[in-house]
Hints:
two-stranded antiparallel ribbon
Amino acid sequence: MQLVIFDIDGTLTNSNDFDATCFIRAFELEFGFSEINSNWSEYENITDSGITQQIFWEKLNQLPKQEEVLKIKKRFVSLLENTSQKNKNLCNEIPGAAQVLAEFSKKQDWGIAIAIT
Length: 117
């Protein structure tokens, strides 16, 4: 079996702007962090977990504990849900993304995964 892995933001959905806003807001609400750099290309590891580690290191000179990571994830998902429920037009499909997923789901020797890091 072969596996295809898709990222969500910018690959399946056009949600980068509100996604970034919610991500930064989660740090502010959970830990009081302000002035977070939202230019993800300036981070050493451009994944949610890599960015989280770097933000903690820059703000507290330590890596986040597992429970702190869970708090951020929970708050982030909550903010995404609340924001997207209030405005259904914030998260639109990248043209053709649903069709690509449908085509892969028909293939017997292929599995589909969504990357969450």
